Amino acid sequence: MKWLDQIKWDAQGLVPVIAQEASTGDVLMFAWMNREALHKTAELKRAVYFSRSRNKLWFKGEESGHVQTVHEMRLDCDNDVVLLKVTQLGHEPGIACHTGRHSCFFQQYQNGEWTATEPVLKDPETIYK
């Protein structure tokens, strides 16, 4: 598949991926994909990542139900970062973060420290079993 060969994979065969909410432009999360994950994402129109900690494919939402439907896949100018434009499903507003928040980027630098600026929408203890 030529389109996969155009990506500059790192030494571990991974590429960084940013998930952005299609409707709002919010950056939801950052993750990694290998060739298989990116191919499955394109095929299924659903975000499939590669979990480095578990060393396996991670179908976003497989445990939490917080699935990401993929509307667009984009590649940056250096061919080494993928951007997914997604709809975050499973809760309204969608929860992308394992902490139960809308976005993984909920901490903001303020007055010399990182402050949580987004609320927990759902207790993570009730999301993951």
CATH architecture name: Roll
CATH superfamily descriptor: Phosphoribosyl-AMP cyclohydrolase
Biggest sheet details: 4 strands, mixed
List the domain count as a whole number: 1
* Alpha-carbon distance between the two ends: 38 Å
Number of helices: 3
N-to-C order of helices and strands: HEEHEEEEEEH
The CATH class name reads Alpha Beta
Assign the CATH topology. Answer: Ubiquitin-like (UB roll)
Look at the helices and sheets and give the structural class. alpha+beta
Mean pLDDT score: 94
Count of beta strands: 8
- Side by side, the strands of the main sheet go 2-1-6-5
Name the beta content range.
Answer: 25-35%
3D shape: globular
Radius of gyration in whole Å, from Cα?
15 Å
Provide a descriptive summary of the structure in words.
Strand 5 and strand 6 form a beta hairpin. The relative contact order is 0.19. The longest helix is centred in the first third of the chain and has 10 residues, at 35-44. The radius of gyration is 15 Å and the shape is globular. The chain is of the alpha+beta class and 129 residues long. The chain has a single domain, classed as Ubiquitin-like (UB roll) (Roll), CATH 3.10.20. The protein has helices at residues 2-5, 35-44, 124-127, and strands spanning 15-21, 27-33, 48-51, 56-59, 68-75, 82-88, 107-110, 113-116. The strands form 3 sheets. The protein has a 4-stranded mixed β-sheet, covered by helices on one side. The chain has a two-stranded antiparallel ribbon with strand order 3-4.
